[in-house]
């Protein structure tokens, strides 16, 4: 059941909280990106629930039907595009289905799978976040009149970046597996890009390039591993 249908009138959208009454399921493996989503939802009036993989998302969706689902395309147990394709044909369909990623090609993939729209990472603009949802939300669920929005960029908790580095350190233990290595490079490049960690982003992208070109990956993997361990050990702040 859609949580929105259970709400009393005083929880309808307003000019300052245009997403009030909506529950947003964010399918996202990065704690840093998810904390950005949490802050965006907080400023917009929406409630947020999180799943960190496809399996967890499907478990959530067996219990309730959110108003909005935002799905990262690169997840540890598969492609978010597969879940987008599933949800785009489910009846009743969720009102808003968005893809998200930091990869330049990902928008085309998400839309082809059936997404209503796309959010490119890093996501920091409250206005852009709200517009992406409101532009495809049924008209009866949109606030009437002008919106009053403070568009100061959201700044996720640096502790969430440390959590991502700890996750990456765990994944590195199985990085010899080609599928794991592909996931790791995508995850680290995206998280580092969102956090403004240019050194780690470049190292992850170089490793991805070496893998794609069939070159030895050990030097790049050692470099990435050292950078991740430095951030975990030093509790590096952003």
TrEMBL record:
GO terms for biological process: phosphorelay signal transduction system. SUPFAM superfamilies: CheY-like. It comes from the Bacteria. CDD domains: REC. Pfam families: Response_reg (PF00072). Keywords: Phosphoprotein. PANTHER family: RESPONSE REGULATORY DOMAIN-CONTAINING PROTEIN (PTHR44591:SF3), STRESS RESPONSE REGULATOR PROTEIN 1 (PTHR44591). This is Response regulator. It comes from Mameliella alba.
């Amino acid at each position: 059941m859609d949580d929105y249908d259970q709400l009393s009138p005083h929880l309808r959208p307003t000019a300052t909280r245009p997403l009030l009454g909506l529950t947003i399921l964010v399918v996202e493996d990065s704690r840093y990106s998810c904390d950005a989503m949490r802050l965006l939802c907080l400023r917009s009036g929406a409630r947020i629930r999180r799943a960190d993989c496809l399996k967890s998302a499907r478990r959530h969706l067996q219990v309730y039907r959110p108003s909005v689902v935002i799905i990262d395309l690169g997840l540890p147990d598969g492609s978010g595009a597969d879940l987008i394709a599933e949800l785009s044909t489910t009846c009743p369909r969720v009102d808003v289905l968005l893809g998200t990623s930091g990869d330049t090609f990902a928008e085309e993939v998400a839309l082809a799978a059936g997404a209503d729209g796309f959010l490119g990472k890093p996501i920091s603009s409250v206005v852009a976040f709200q517009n992406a949802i409101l532009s495809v939300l049924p008209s009866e669920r949109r606030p009437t009149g002008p919106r009053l929005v403070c568009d100061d960029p959201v700044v996720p908790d640096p502790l969430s970046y440390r959590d991502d580095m700890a996750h990456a350190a765990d994944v590195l233990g199985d990085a010899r597996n080609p599928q794991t290595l592909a996931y790791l490079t995508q995850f680290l490049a995206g998280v580092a890009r969102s956090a403004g960690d240019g050194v780690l982003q470049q190292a992850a992208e170089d490793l991805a390039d070496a893998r794609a070109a069939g070159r030895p990956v050990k030097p790049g993997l050692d470099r990435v591993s050292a950078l991740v361990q430095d951030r975990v050990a030093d509790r590096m702040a952003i």
